[in-house]
Design goal:
The chain is mostly helical. The protein has two domains: about 40-185 and about 250-400, no CATH class; about 185-250. About 80% of the residues lie in helices and about 0% in strands. The protein has 16 helices and no strands. The protein has helices at about 1-20, 20-35, 45-70, 75-105, 110-140, 145-165, 175-180, 185-215, 220-245, 250-270, 270-280, 285-290, 295-320, 330-340, 350-370, 375-400. Helix 3 runs antiparallel to helix 13, helix 4 (about 75-105) packs across helix 6 (about 145-165) and helix 5 runs antiparallel to helix 6. The longest helix is centred in the N-terminal third of the chain and has 34 residues, at about 110-140. It is globular. The chain starts with a helix and ends with a helix.
C-alpha cells in the first residue's frame, strides 16, 4: 500500500509539472530576452505594450478553444475580425454622424459620440454572433466540414472588408471607442480591482472545497490550495503594481480578463462546457448518450463569432481607423496560441487558461524579436517552427497515452 501511495504521489507531481510547464517556459523566455535586450524587454513600458498586443488575439484564442475542443476549426476569425473592424469604423465615421445629430439635436457632441459608440458596439456584437451562427449551422446541421466552411467564410469576409473599405482607411473614430482599446485605469482603481480579484480567488477556492466535500469527492490539503491561491494572488497584485509603475492597468487587458473568467466558468462549471469536452472526446458516444451534438457545435461557433465582434471593436479602437489589412493572419496566431497552450487539434483537450498562456508565449517571442530588431522573415520562421514543434509534442503525447 505504501508503494502504491508513493506511485500515486509521483503521478500527481507529473500532472502538476505538465500543467505549469508553460509558466516555466514563459519565465525562461522573458529572462532570455531581458538579458539579450539589456533589460529593455523587462521594462514596465514594454510589458504594458506586450499585454496590449496580445489582447486582440487573446479574444480569438478564448473563442477558438471550445471550437477546437469539439474537434473543429475556424479559419475565418481573422477576416471576421477585420470585417467587423471596418464596419465599426464605417458606422462611426460615415453612417451614424449623418443622422444621429438630426435625431437628437439636443445632445452635445460628446454625448453623441458616446451614443454612437454604444450603437456601434451593439451592432458589431450582433453581426459577429450572426456570422458565427451562420457558419455553425452549416457545419453542424449541413454536414459540411468546418475547414471548408470557414475557409470559404474567410474569403467571403475578406472580400466584404475590401468592399466596405474600398481601398481606403476609414477615419475618424470616436474618443469613447478609442478609450476601450487605448485607455488606462488610474492607480487606485487598479489596486481596488486587484484586491477584489484576490478576495474572489480565495472565496472560489473555499467554495470549491466545500462543494467537493458535500459530494464526497477527494480534495487536496487545505495548505496546498491556499499556497496555489496565494501564488495567483501574488501574480495579480504584482501585475497591477508593475502596470501602475508605467501608466496603469490597460482597459482592454481588463476586458480580456473578465471575458476569460466568464468563458472559463462556462467551460468548467456548466453542462454546456461538459458537453463541449464530451463531443471532442467521443462524438458517437456523446450522440448515443442523448446529447444534441449539433446544438453544441452551433453554440461554440456562435460564441466564436461573438468574440470576433469584441476583437473587431477593440481593433478599431486600437488602430483608431478601419483598414484593409485588419485581421490579416489573426486566425493563425489564435490557433497557434491554443495549440501552444495545450489545446489538442484532435479534440477533447484544452483550457482557456492554457490558450491565454500560449498566446502570451507567442506574443512574448514576437515582441522580444522586435525589440532585438530581428528581421521580419526570421520572426515568421521562428513562430512557424514553434507551432510545428507544439503540434508534434501534442501528437506524440497522444500516441504515448494510447499505448
Amino acid at each position: 500500500m505504501k508503494q502504491l501511495n508513493f506511485i500515486d504521489k509521483i503521478k500527481k507531481i507529473k500532472i502538476d509539472i505538465r500543467a505549469y510547464t508553460l509558466i516555466f517556459a514563459l519565465i525562461v523566455i522573458w529572462l532570455l530576452f531581458g538579458s539579450l535586450t539589456g533589460g529593455v524587454f523587462l521594462s514596465s513600458r514594454n510589458f504594458s505594450n506586450l499585454l496590449r498586443q496580445m489582447t486582440i488575439i487573446s479574444f480569438l484564442a478564448i473563442g477558438m478553444t471550445p471550437v477546437i475542443i469539439t474537434g473543429n476549426i475556424d479559419l475565418s476569425v481573422g477576416s471576421m475580425t477585420g470585417f467587423i473592424s471596418v464596419i465599426a469604423a464605417y458606422l462611426q465615421a460615415i453612417l451614424l454622424p449623418t443622422f444621429l445629430p438630426g435625431l437628437f439635436p439636443a445632445l452635445s457632441v460628446e454625448l453623441l459620440g458616446i451614443f454612437s459608440t454604444i450603437i456601434t458596439i451593439i451592432i458589431c456584437l450582433l453581426l459577429g454572433l450572426l456570422i458565427g451562427m451562420g457558419q455553425g449551422y452549416i457545419i453542424a446541421y449541413g454536414g459540411v466540414p468546418a475547414f471548408i466552411v470557414t475557409l470559404g467564410g474567410m474569403l467571403i469576409l475578406r472580400g466584404g472588408l475590401l468592399a466596405v473599405a474600398q481601398g481606403k482607411t476609414i477615419v475618424p473614430i470616436e474618443d469613447s471607442l478609442r478609450v476601450m482599446a487605448q485607455g488606462y485605469l488610474t492607480k487606485y482603481p487598479g489596486i481596488i480591482i486587484a484586491v477584489i480579484a484576490i478576495i474572489i480567488l480565495f472565496l472560489v477556492t473555499l467554495q470549491s472545497r466545500t462543494k467537493k466535500t458535500q459530494y464526497g469527492l477527494k480534495i487536496k490539503p487545505l495548505s496546498y490550495d491556499l499556497v496555489v491561491t496565494s501564488l495567483f494572488s501574488a501574480i495579480v497584485l504584482g501585475f497591477v503594481l508593475v502596470m501602475n509603475s508605467y501608466r496603469g492597468v490597460q482597459i482592454p487587458v481588463l476586458i480580456m480578463a473578465i471575458i476569460a473568467v466568464m468563458v472559463t466558468y462556462l467551460t468548467n462549471n456548466t453542462r454546456f462546457g461538459r458537453h463541449i469536452y464530451a463531443v471532442g472526446g467521443n462524438k458517437e458516444a456523446t450522440k448515443l448518450s442523448g446529447i444534441n451534438v449539433q446544438a453544441v457545435v452551433l453554440k461554440t461557433y456562435a460564441l466564436m463569432g461573438l468574440l470576433c465582434g469584441v476583437s473587431g471593436i477593440i481593433l478599431t479602437g486600437y488602430v483608431a481607423a478601419g483598414t484593409t489589412s485588419g485581421g490579416m493572419n489573426y486566425e493563425l496566431s489564435a490557433i497557434g496560441g491554443c495549440v501552444m497552450g495545450g489545446t489538442s487539434l484532435m479534440g477533447g483537450i484544452g483550457t482557456v487558461f492554457g490558450a491565454l498562456m500560449g498566446t502570451l508565449l507567442m506574443t512574448s517571442i514576437e515582441n522580444g524579436m522586435s525589440v532585438m530588431n530581428m528581421s521580419v522573415f526570421w520572426q515568421y520562421i521562428v513562430k512557424g517552427l514553434i507551432l510545428v514543434l507544439a503540434v508534434y509534442v501534442d501528437v506524440t503525447s497522444r500516441k504515448n497515452k494510447s499505448l
